[in-house]
Here is the input.
Amino acid sequence: MSTLVDALSPARFGTYRLWADGDDALATRLYSFNVALSAALYGPLHMLEVALRNVSDRALTTAFGADWMDDTAVLTTAYQQRCVETARDNLLREKKAATHAQMVAELNFGFWSSLFGRTPNNHLWRVLRPIFQTKGLQRSDIAAHLKDFRILRNRVAHYEPILALPLAQRYADITTLTGWLSPSAAAWINHTSTWAAIYPAVPILTVDAATGETRFAPAAEPFLPT
Here is the structure.
């Protein structure tokens, strides 16, 4: 008889089996919970990314003009320039016009995050700092958050385990940063999000101080799908 591990592969299921100390039934419930939490994060991550790219684009267009994507004085790194070239090629391959709006949507999250990276004299920060509606913010703060979000987003998008990540903190940071960009976007997350309804108020996994091994925390058992 076929089992879930046959569909997932032993390697993919192995992480959950390890957390469950070899209990396949518990490992299956952990896998289901991982999927449910990933689904709950999809909407907030979507809104964060959409808000970030559109608000950033407006600021850069105001400062440098509508052709800022093709200005090497604006996009100074080879990575950024390659992202623009790849996005345009992808759109043209799909027989799309590669308009400015289409380019904004096509450019990946890594590109938008790179705008807040360390560059010679941080020339973009003076333009992008005002898009965040809060005080006392440093470029490195945004860069660190975006790195965390990118890792989380990629794991969600590729169906990878996320239970070992500090998910409560990540979710709080997503809503906070989105609110700095757009209070309306943050309100949308708060109105539509299912996160609070499914994320437990207790740890899902714990690390054994003696062995360093990560295992399922029994206190979270009532929160798992049955």
